[in-house]
Amino acid sequence: MQIGSIIEAAGQYVKAQYQQHPHPDLVYHNLEHTQQVVQAAEQIAIHYRLQEQDLLVVMVAAWFHDMGYLMGNAREHEEKGAAVAREFLQQQQVPEAVQQQVAGCIMATKMPQSPHNLLEEIVCDADLFHLGSKHYKERSKLMRQEAATTFGKELTSATWAETSLLFLENHEYFTDYCRVLLKQQKAENIKWLKRKLEKKQEEAGLAAAQAATLAKTGKTRSEKVKAEKTKEEKPDKEKKQKRPERGVETMFRTTSTNHIRLSSMADSKAHIMISTNAIIISILLSVLLRKLEDNPNLILPSFLLLATSVVTIIYSVLATRPNVTNGRFTRDDIERKTTNLLFFGNFHGMTLDEYRWGMTEMMKDANFLYGSMIQDIYHLGVVLGHKYRLLRIAYNIFMFGLIISVLAFIIAVVFFPVKD
């Protein structure tokens, strides 16, 4: 089962469905939202370093979680999305257990969200990732527009702000990663909603006072409507700032993913070298060495081939041998920003409370956070460079040693035959 190809196929399938079944009323639950959820799910999954099968479950669930909206079934879109995902996975010949996990992750996003394991928690948090992002304002406007179209009822700004504020204040992320990462921005979004609601309430009170004044002074109804209309048509002058943060996060996510894949490829190459040369050594010891007494001319070629295999295995093992540090950090390390909490080797010896404190302190400081991510990517690159350098040596030894050994066997057989 090729995990990467199935995830890619899921993305292509969902994109094709949105293209083949356009739904203009879905201004929020559209392909853009699905892609944002997929990106968020991948970001959270990378943090938790999920195994390949678990990553497949999360990513496929993220792609299919809102497919039910395309079928015109908004109220039960989770059930329809889970069913479509299962059909797709059956076509990909994915095991039934994985299909059930994907369906479970999609059903967990049904409001109120009810995840039962880490994979379901990741998908739920990815679905509402925007609540703690700087894109919340624009996403909230689209959600309001879609809700008005779906239910056929226009909601006032004050009513929508009040409903959104209540939802945000009662919402909690399930994963520790999202709770820490999105806490500050989510708080800012709540403050923005409170200010907006207060403003709308003040405007409503002012409008009521103006109405009373108009009634007393005898102003005509047309003048009153004109004044209210002029006030409502004032443009929103909030300037949208350019946000490089999203591009930076995408860069970090892409780079980390590429490093992890390259590391996995290096381990696979080393495994191939170890397995191949182990077979060669077993054949030499079990078959060829028994005949050296009768064929002394083959002693040197056999020794060359044996030495080549042994040295190749040594370098391949060195390329995959783990190097784990003591796994502890101090408060001084955090205050001086000299430790990288994103690498397990720096915290595996700590308690959960100590690590949670360190991560919280890091999340408070953007420079410390981005610095740790840069440091993590740098050390991954250093490890990769060391792995591939040793692998290159192993492959060179194997290639040239094999050539020399074969030439030695040919020379020994042709020019130094055993005399009867």
From TrEMBL:
The chain crosses the membrane at residues 270-292, 298-318, 393-418. PANTHER family: HD PHOSPHOHYDROLASE FAMILY PROTEIN-RELATED, PTHR21174. Residues 215-248 are annotated as: Disordered. One of its GO terms (cellular component) is plasma membrane. Signal peptide: none annotated. It is found in: Cell membrane. SUPFAM superfamilies: HD-domain/PDEase-like. The keyword Glycosyltransferase does not apply. GO terms for biological process: defense response to virus. Residues 26-141 form the HD/PDEase domain. This is Putative nucleotidyltransferase with HDIG domain. Residues 220-248 have a biased composition (Basic and acidic residues). Its main location: membrane. InterPro entries: HD/PDEase_dom, HD_domain, HD_phosphohydro, HDIG_dom, PycTM_dom. Pfam families: HD, PycTM. It comes from the Bacteria. GO terms for molecular function: nucleotide binding; transferase activity.
